[in-house]
Design brief:
Shape: elongated
Oligomer: single chain
Radius of gyration: 21 Å
Strand content: under 5%
Number of helices: 4
Helix content: over 70%
């Protein structure tokens, strides 16, 4: 094993999911095609997650702030949008595994190539390329972890509102869950900003 460590690149269990700029004060280096392909899939999932979060919070806002005489249709809308969000999170997790595998394959190929290179100059150049990729991936991973920390309590609050209203779908029930819903609304901006940050960090690395 070479001294350069393999980057710990894993998407949120986002589920989770994807907020900080990449790198350590330097521009990210372009990534190998195989790695870029995996990250492009993650970027697409992040964009889809952002749109679905907006739908979930809009449905919850409608239920909590504009309750109708019959609460069932509004509750159903919120429940369905949350279920779609959970499905998107599962897709993001699956894409994370795809990206992880592509990273592992790329670094295994580099390890093999480094062992076969003859000149020290060629080895040094190859090692620099490997190191630059590691730094770029570490920066993306930091943005994902930053989002994950914010997203976990956000998702928990959404699920708690859904669970409680299953047994108490009434105006007093809505009032009981109001503080939890308010936390969701307050956190939404940071979550969406975090997803934007992940998309931006990946775009900076792959174009």
């Amino acid at each position: 094993m070479h001294s350069q460590s393999l980057p710990r690149f894993a998407l949120l269990a986002l589920g989770a999911c994807f907020v900080l700029p990449v790198g350590c004060g330097s521009d990210p280096q372009p990534l190998p095609p195989k790695v870029a392909t995996g990250l492009d899939g993650l970027r697409s999932e992040a964009i889809a997650l952002k749109g679905q979060i907006e739908k979930v919070t809009a449905a919850l806002s409608d239920l909590m702030q504009k309750p109708q005489a019959d609460l069932q249709p509004q509750s159903w809308s919120f429940t369905q949008e949350l279920a779609v969000l959970e499905g998107r999170l599962e897709r993001a997790q699956a894409q994370r595994q795809v990206a992880d595998n592509m990273v592992l394959e790329q670094f295994a190929a580099w390890d093999s190539q480094l062992d076969q290179l003859q000149s020290e100059e060629a080895k040094d150049l190859a090692a620099e390329r490997r190191s630059a990729t590691t730094q770029t991936l570490d920066g993306i991973q930091k943005s994902i972890e930053g989002l994950r920390e914010k997203f976990a309590p956000f998702l928990t609050d959404l699920r708690d509102v859904r669970q409680y209203l299953k047994g108490d779908l009434s105006l007093p029930g809505l009032e009981t869950m109001k503080p939890v819903a308010q936390r969701v609304f307050a956190a939404q901006g940071a979550i969406l900003g975090g997803l934007d940050g992940v998309v931006a960090s990946i775009t900076a690395a792959i174009g």
